[in-house]
Design goal:
heterodimer; A: Heat Shock Protein 90; B: about 130 residues; Transcription Regulator spoIIAA; five-stranded mixed sheet; 4 helices; 5 strands; about 15% strand
């Protein structure tokens, strides 16, 4: 899904929910996943100028989950370690976005190259 | 739909958020509410978020802002109807909504607001006097 405007966020969240419901994810985990997705989509819009979001159903052994990939071609993040700290923000926000998101999901991966863009991948297991 | 309706009930303003918010809508609500508080001299703001399936850090910040802004405009804010899954997620995200009063449902929220504002105020709800003091 291409995300270019704020209005794209709500339909995207709904799509994530559809996938999560399909694999039978509990309501609490659905809510965590969708909240995490919402944070990352906002980051992508705000800092990356929009980008693409991919939703996939994945499985590992007997565990099913949802994987979301967000990639933008924005300015990138200089210091990822710093960006992952609670309370750090270059914009006018609470600085909870990245570290908070990491707490909400099972797996979290961020890759960024200055001048090239940022890709964030998260996985939420059905029971994780 | 670009605005969340704000209802007036006596000294209170009542907001029921029925749609999932995108950021602009939330920002509009924030400014509309503060202006309504000023225009009507409302003493309390009740925000029903029972239909919200998620509250992320941005929405949480807006709720916090509404609380603080109303406070300096001499109005109390109570947020009601938060879903359990939303509460769990908010805390794990690291957002504690400090400074915002909450209640389980609209009825309890109303009672809390009336209690906060105190008995000195005229609380007849269907009367349409714009709180002349």
């Amino acid at each position: 899904m291409v995300i270019q405007r704020e209005q794209d966020v709500v339909p995207f969240r709904n799509r994530v929910k559809e996938y999560a419901v399909k694999i039978g994810m509990s309501l609490v985990n659905q809510t965590k996943l969708i909240t995490a997705a919402s944070e990352l989509v906002r980051n992508m819009l705000k800092y990356g100028g929009g980008g693409e979001a991919l939703i996939e159903a994945v499985s590992k052994g007997r565990e099913n989950g949802i994987r979301l990939t967000f990639s933008d071609k924005g300015p990138g993040i200089k210091d990822i370690q710093q960006a992952m700290k609670d309370g750090f923000s270059t914009g006018k926000s609470l600085g909870l976005g990245l570290p908070g998101t990491k707490r909400l999901v099972s797996e979290f991966d961020i890759k960024s190259a200055v001048g090239k863009g940022t890709t964030v991948t998260i996985i939420k297991w059905k029971n994780g | 739909m670009d605005r969340i309706p704000i209802l007036r009930m006596g000294n209170f303003l009542l907001v029921t958020i029925q749609v999932d918010l995108y950021d602009r809508l939330a920002l509009n609500l924030e400014s509309d509410l503060v202006q309504m508080v000023s225009k009507t001299g409302a003493r309390g703001v009740l925000i029903d978020i029972s239909a919200l399936s998620i509250v992320d850090s941005f929405m949480g910040r807006i709720i916090g802002n509404i609380g603080s802004m109303s406070k300096i405009m001499d109005a109390e804010t109570v947020v009601v109807g938060m879903q359990p899954a939303v509460a769990i997620t908010l805390i794990e995200l690291g957002l504690e909504l400090k400074g915002v009063s909450t209640a389980l449902n609209v009825e309890k929220g109303m009672a809390l607001l009336q209690h906060k504002i105190g008995s000195s105020e005229d609380l007849e709800e269907d009367q349409d006097d714009s709180s002349v003091e």
